[in-house]
Amino acid sequence: MRKSKDSPGRFFRIELLCAVLALTGSISVRGQSLHTNQFQPTAGRTAAPIDVTGYWVALITEDWRYRMLTPLKGDYYGVPLNLAAKKLADAWDPAKDEARGEQCKSYGAPAIMRVPGRIHISWANDDTLRVEMDNGQQTRLFHFGGWTPPVGSRSTWQGESIARWTWPGQTLRADTRGSLGLRAFTAGAIGAGEFGAGIPAAPPAPPTTGSLTVLTTHLRAGYLRKNGVPYSANAVVTEYYDLAKPPKGDQWLTVTTIVDDPEFLEAPFITSTHFRKQPDGGMWTPEACSSR
Amino acid sequence: MKTRWAWIAVVFLAITIPALAQVDFVGEWAPRFHEDQPERIPGPALGDYLGLPINDALRLRADSWDADLISMPERQCNPHPATYSFRGPANLRVSKEADPVTQDIVSYTIYGTFGRATRVIWMDGRPHPSASAAHTWAGFSTGKWEGGILTVETSHLKAGYLRRNGVIHSDLATMTEHFIRHADHLTIVTLVVDPVYLTEPFIRTTDFVMDLGQHESATPCDVAIEALRPNGAVPHHLPGANPFLTGFATGANLPQGAARGGAQTMYPEYRLHMNTAIPAPPVFATESLVGNAGENAPVEILPVRGNIYMLVAGGGNITLSLGPEGVLLVDTAVAALADNILAEIRKVTAKPIRYVLNTSADQDHTGGNAFFAKIGRPIGAGGAGSALFADIAETDPRAEIYAHLNVLDRMSDLPASAWPTITYFNDRKELFFNDEAVQILHLPSAHSDGDSIVFFRRSDVVSTGDIFDTVTYPIIDLAKGGSIQGEIDGLNRILDITIPAAQQEGGTMVIPGHGRLCDEADVVEYRDMVTILRDRILDMKSRGMTLDQVKVARPTRDYDGRYGATTGPWTTDAFVEAVYRSVPASK
Question: Which residues of chain B lie closer than 8 angstroms to A191, CB-CB?
């Protein structure tokens, strides 16, 4: 006897197929694209597993000569630039930037966390984290809660940033290739791997540890380093904010920044920047952007 | 139908919610050199101390560093220490070990990094070893997960690079790390604290990307003679005489003061006044910044290798050979600790004490002689002991005390019960005890004129007495026949005996007169320091400086935070004076 379309057996096969498809997606260590923003957006302040607010100072123990000084033209050691980008970097002329009123070209989101200075992180509202920088006087807004950039958003130095909290074992990565383009997050489970795949676990309620992941797009073309090392308007920035509390009671914030730029980078440009918590804004020293 | 599809959707979503799997970082990780590329790949320039929270002592020490040092046979195979290894060429293979019964994670192992100082991070809650235990390039690491971050604490590090241009942390540095994984990216936060050379914790963050295609091969190191230099020479620059320090700042268009580093250069505001900053007058510690904990250290026994144990007692070390024939002691510490020492020995053996060997006549090495000789028993009258005293052995059986003849001379004002009973006056004395050849080797005119080191050949352990001391500058007792040249010759003699295992680590182990358990690399570090200080004082003396002028100039100031003392039996001034008086008037 032929089974009806809605027979229990067919139902089971569909269910099984769904499960297999789901497993295939969830075992990826890299978090392969499922071409959907499947990771549920989290609320902002109320869901925060860590507190990143406060004043923080960057300690310049790395890339000193690229961050504290304006490097010489053509010094782009360590940046995976393609030939087109090198050509642009070699033609860097700060006077032209000044003439165009583009002194903030090296203070955009792909570079701002490397700028030596202090940052102030606070909640602008329950779903928007505000990050201000004294050096360059820039402000970034990290939007939680399913916010998406308004249609027709114009490109700016700081772009548009979507933020999500993640908790241990979870990761988000910008999908620069998927059909949803640069706005999509891809969710994955670190270490789900070959053995742990397919055993779902409930999200923690509420998580008390975790990270902040920020995806930034809609960028105005600028510089990764002050000496004209370029990124394009197509660049997308993925950032991970993590807290640690090592000896002497200092609180440290580590920001890992990954810049994907299909126009100027041969590979993602990865840096990590560390900040120490400050008791207050007493050392806050606003400075205007400078091309030199 | 609607309900059914809704149910399917629930199943789908439930399964695709990212699993809260165990965070892990096992796998192959390739470094990204997007930060500090010129420093990390070609190598840092001499005199580049940018962004390092170093004190004046380390600045001087780095200024004195000569890159030729790494061509020395004793240093060619040094790997990068854990404090620096992630910053150098470092492809990582991380693996984990699970308990076979519980499957709890016991440890992570990180293989790779320059020179292959393999890291083991213990996750099973074990404590860090005794402060007297040996130090390694990788150090001793314990870890725990704090949320999604693995936090690792590392101690027992050898002195090694913070930056591979002579910026070196001391062997008292410790490190905290945070391993943070996001997708296929790994960020490692490293914080180094060094009470001797850093004024603030030194933080760096280093990035890796998962690379399943990489292969970590072994990199065995074979020592070769790369340069001919006089025997005992240690490459270095005298203070103020290094011609290569300014080139970096000039080439990078930097103020010279900025390149000198210091904690102030880490902060953003330094950028605003670096061109006008006036260097503060240098400040140097006058004495060890970590104190001499050894003098109050509890009595404890550490296994070394084979028959050999190190007994830490009141700052003075005793070497024990334990075996079927009984107990042999190298030195007996101070008399007041004898009961405690015996109690500690009895925890590991009930065998009788057969021999005492003295490395010098000093009270902190011979104070327990009478006690241990009295409770000991020789191996038969006239056996391994002296037939001359066979009658005494039968009526008053005592352990034999071996020493160089000059030790007996120096102890003539002490009760006879503490005297060596068997002496030698040539360059060596030999024993075979506990199935092991034991060489007692005389090193003339070093710490004194009666120094011996003891080499346990089968166990491959050297007991050095006060020729090597990880706590203070070497005690050179001019009144008892010591000399700086003899001291340096003695250290080089120890290095002739020692053979390190792979990674210039382990192999022949070295028990110093005072301080922690060591190996060849530690002796090299000490030998280099003593030789450099000798050269500085010799240079000053040959330029006509008086002893007082030399003391004021403080030629030891870059090491005083580690070895110096202003009070106690052996001060820095006493060391400088001993060196000054025992070097010739001209080079």
Answer: 21-24
